[in-house]
Amino acid sequence: MAHDHNSKEKVVYVGDSRVKKYKKNNVPLDYSAYPGNSEAFVPNFLLKEWMVGSVFLVGFMILTMSHPSPLGYPADPTKTDFVPIPDWYFLFLYQLLKYPYTSDAFVVLGTLVLPGLLFGGLMLAPFLDTGKERRWYKRPIASSLMFLSLFAIVFLTMVSWQGYQHELEELNIIPEHIERAEKLEAGLEVPGGKEEEPVAIVNKESEGYDIYQKSSCISCHAADLNGAVGPTLLGIGDKYSKEEITDIIINGFGNRMGPQLQQNLDAGLTEADLDTLAVWLAEQKAPAGEEAPEEVTDTK
Amino acid sequence: MLKSVYNWIDERLDITPMWRDVADHEVPEHVNPAHHFSAFVYCFGGLTFFITVIQILSGMFLTMYYVDDIVNAYKSVDYLQHKVAFGVIVRGMHHWGASLVIVMMFLHTLRVFFTGSYKAPREMNWIVGMLIFFVMLGLGFTGYLLPWDNKAYFATQVGIQIAASVPILGQYIETFLQGGEIVGAQTLTRFFALHVFFLPGALLALLGGHFFMIRKQGISGPL
């Protein structure tokens, strides 16, 4: 039906397509119809506006070039002494959870109720503040609630940041991204930058290797020692001595690994076997000249 | 030449009305800083959009080098920062732009609030604007993890813990964000997908709605 040019059709198409022919009935009003000194967006206003954009961009690029973005050390989930800090615009929500009536038993007040009131109120502002008046000083309730919220946000953000600074000072911690930047500046080596060569299994012909294959260790540390659920045991001799390894087998490792002695005895290994195993594991060291991967070394 | 190309396309697609809708409108005196300097407060929305464009462009360049797995994420950022030509600047633009876009959006929100511009008939645009605000916060939260350094890792861990403490919904949010028992490989790929596909998609759709409504309703009148 789009193909014939019957002028009695209500909708007229361009050519043989389905694009409607434009009836010039939505031409905007002439600017003289508007009060005041209005001007055309294109090109008059845009030609001035791009200069504002350029000035803004120059400022932005100066900030970017003078302050390279921070980068700390690679994430280490086993680290326990790291002081977590969110990005600055989440600080007020983070700080909110540190007060008695917004934490522990009342935590739902801090996570849901107060932020819900704040953001819900903001979201529904057009339906709560329905008067015709638009000037802020003629809308005392809306404006004072906004000023109060602003004050609370600024206050909580500042308290949170000062608390963080204070905590760092007390624990004598330099934030990692600052420490790393300083080290790079001084030409020192930083962790995580270079490729880490996996350490090979040492003395595979040993009796210890055969015992390892029979032990309960392989269920978490894998038959090739490279780790599965548990961490890798390659190069473990750089971290622990034979005595320490024996202690870990017998007593477990913190809350991440339970005692393994009984399981291995049940599996038919003897205490002497486990001793041989511990000796063999203590031999698992990186070739001379290389440090254990976790060590931070200064080259100068 | 250019004119004839335009005419050739216009004949077939009738693009002149679209062009009129997008660009051919007037700027009232009360929002024009050339007439009243105090009208610079009306620039915040435009600047927010400007930084958003910077974020999208710089983010596109970052994904040329970034690898979203836990072994290589940090290394790729490190490489980008120290080895790639202008990498430090592109990453810097994305890093500082992320903060600046929040600042500008906040100022824009305050301008709209204190001029009462959210009142009828512009309620829907205010709500869409608030949704854009939340999407931006989501982009900030998901983007914070991507460099995979300790600061990123532990902030995300705490963030997810806080979300998990929400009654009833908490555990579902935790599973959705974390994807596993701990903040790990799954979390990183999820955050990456959210940060570069889901949230920007939502953002562009919302921005489209925001701008469509502005064009349709015009800027709010003088106080």
Automatic annotation (TrEMBL), chain A:
Residues that span the membrane, as ranges: 50-67, 105-128, 140-161
Keywords of the record: Electron transport, Heme, Iron, Membrane, Metal-binding, Transmembrane, Transmembrane helix, Transport
One GO CC annotation: membrane
Localisation per UniProt entry: Membrane
Molecular function per GO: electron transfer activity; heme binding; metal ion binding; oxidoreductase activity
One Pfam family from the record: Cytochrom_B_C
InterPro entries: Cyt_b/b6_C, Cyt_b/b6_C_sf, Cyt_c-like_dom, Cyt_c-like_dom_sf, Cytb/b6-like_sf, Cytochrome_c550/c551-like
Segments forming domain Cytochrome b/b6 C-terminal region profile: 31-162
Keyword Cell wall biogenesis/degradation among UniProt keywords: no
Membrane topology: Multi-pass membrane protein
Domain Cytochrome c span(s) in chain numbering: 203-285
Keyword Cell inner membrane found: no
PANTHER family assigned to the protein according to its UniProt record, in alphabetical order: CYTOCHROME C-553-LIKE, MENAQUINOL-CYTOCHROME C REDUCTASE CYTOCHROME B_C SUBUNIT
Entry protein name: C-type cytochrome
Organism: Chengkuizengella marina
UniProtKB/TrEMBL annotation, chain B:
Subcellular location: Cell membrane
GO cellular component: plasma membrane
Keyword RNA-binding belongs to the record: no
Location (main, coarse): membrane
GO biological process: respiratory electron transport chain
Cofactors demanded by this protein: heme b; heme c
Keyword Nucleotide-binding: no
GO-annotated molecular function: electron transfer activity; metal ion binding; oxidoreductase activity
Keywords per UniProt: Cell membrane, Electron transport, Heme, Iron, Membrane, Metal-binding, Transmembrane, Transmembrane helix, Transport
Pfam families, per the entry: Cytochrome_B
Transmembrane segments: 39-67, 96-114, 126-146, 152-170, 191-214
Lipid bilayer topology: Multi-pass membrane protein
Coiled coil feature spans: none
Top-level lineage group: Bacteria
Matching NCBIfam families: cytb_ExtP, PRK03735.1
Subunit organization: The main subunits of the menaquinol:cytochrome c complex are a Rieske-type iron-sulfur protein (QcrA), a cytochrome b (QcrB) and a cytochrome c (QcrC).
Record's protein name: Menaquinol:cytochrome c reductase cytochrome b subunit
